User: What shape does this take?
Amino acid sequence: MASLLELSGVSVSFDGFRAINNLSFQIGEPELRAIIGPNGAGKTTFMDIVTGKTRPDTGRVLWGEKSVSLLKLSESQIARAGIGRKFQKPTVFEAQTVRENLAMALKAPRGPLDVLRLRPTQASADRIAAIAAEIGLSDDLPRIAGELSHGQKQWLEIGMLLAQDPRLLLVDEPAAGMTPAERAHTTDLLKRLAERHAVVVVEHDMDFVRRLGCKVTVLHEGSVLAEGSLDHVTANRDVIDVYLGR
Amino acid sequence: MTRTLIRENPSIPWFLAILAAFCLGVTLMAEATGVGMLSTSFVKTLGKTLCLCLVAIAMDVVWGYCGILSLGHMAFFGLGGYAIGMWLMYARTEIIVTGSLANAPIPPTPAEIEDAIATQIFGVVGANEFPLIWAFADSLALQLLMVVLVPGLLALVFGWLAFRSRVTGVYLSILTQAMTLALALYLFQNDSGLRGNNGLSGLQNIPFFRDTPQSVISIAFFWASALALALGYVLFAWVVSGRMGSVIRGIRDNEARVRFLGYHVEGFKLFVFTLSAVVAGIAGALYYPQAGIINPAEVAPIASIYLAVWVAIGGRGRLYGAVIGAAFVSLLSSWFTGGGAPDIDLGVYEIRWTDWWLVLLGLSFVAVTLFAPKGIGGLFDLVARRPAPTAAPARTRAEAAE
Assistant: This one.
């Protein structure tokens, strides 16, 4: 399995604080991976580096078959290369309708002149309807996104991620604020996505990670502490000390 | 496509109908074409107001829809005015000079004519030669091109530098103020090549139409301004609808999120900013022949701040709001400052509106911001079936999310 994303020797510090310390990580396609770790372990900074929001001080971030360095690309170029991100706090366009939110995320040419000429087609309407059915918002398409409940906003953001159709999905705490039934649905969805895509899930909730049943990477103080199945890492002495033992 | 556009912007047919009715009414009451109830100078005021409405919707698209609070938009408006003013002055002076030299015993050479025109135009600033920037002033077609090119290029270069460095919010507003201030200071210099603080004058005299009375010229410019406003309205309605509108409003509310969706935010901002500047330039080119004079004070920072105040009072984030704001406030302003409003004698103190109008404007701006953030245009939400998308103060929210 060739790796889709590969980070090696990545370090970044903010005002002397080393958020990421000589981190190496790789993920193939398709693969489902969970990242766990205590607060401040560098989970969000890791995502910021991959999506181009934060530039590392040292290290390499390589993407795809041609091993393109993501460090040279802007955020929007990285997104167009096929990396989608769901934020921890649901971040949708609250002043716009659910349909507009999904339409904006749909895979399509992204230049200003392309977008100006773009008008709704049957194919895009069908795609939006299919995604809305998947995320349970079929009846809410004309609603303003700001009116949705917290859980629905989570779903909408997952829907936007689906609409982007990325190769790598970075999902930050997808199950926060969801009911048990919704959590189960999220687990199913992520597993299904991981049949064809690379999916990285950052999560605090151990039960949720257990249900994903995938390889787990434990971060601590900005580097990888342990990697393997959940049972393997939870048996690791270091992991118990820094994370589970508390 | 037309149907989709109108469905997404139900205000278009209403706006065009009201504008057409207004034009018809003014035409029927004007001196040249109607019963003469409206004086020529008032027709000019109305025509100028239409141009201000056009620059206001250009401002609204940049600020109300895309979230870029440009406080330098009148620079583009003024540059459009200067561009057309150069041709108007040159062509008219050329006619006068050739007329007066025609009776000379020896026919003048083209170089002598050129020198005489230059002396006529630049005598007030002690110069007698054409600066390089007047190279195209003898050609109407090229100067019309300049009306579009000069503001467009300035916006393109300024926007490219500012957006590329991710300057946003109040810092960008300050930069735009600096831009328009720098332009005004440059134009104030006598050796700027644009007659310093004298500016360009006599612009109401249209070359080749010397025998046409001003009453006819005023109504012609009024119609041209109305046509430009109508076209500008439809153009901007098209830009801010559909997917483009979604992206633009997304940039206003959460720029970083739009970036993570794969849109090159800087490119979109640059597109909107430049388009808006070009339209502002066209509005200026129609305004100043009706005003008759343009001088550097027109691009002073305060002018662009007024523009933002109009849009805020009218209701940003909706095109008709900008039109209402610009028309209402600028007409009210000329009524108050032109001595139309009766002064109030309080016995111990007399409120003279020429002095107090600015206070009133400032108070109403504060009142609108505090109590009616949607502006006057927000009243239409009360009668409309579907609430219009709001210009939420989402910038702060987006910044908090970061």
User: Anything to note?
Assistant: The first strand of chain A starts at residue 3 and ends at 14. Residues 150-164 of chain A form the longest helix (15 residues).
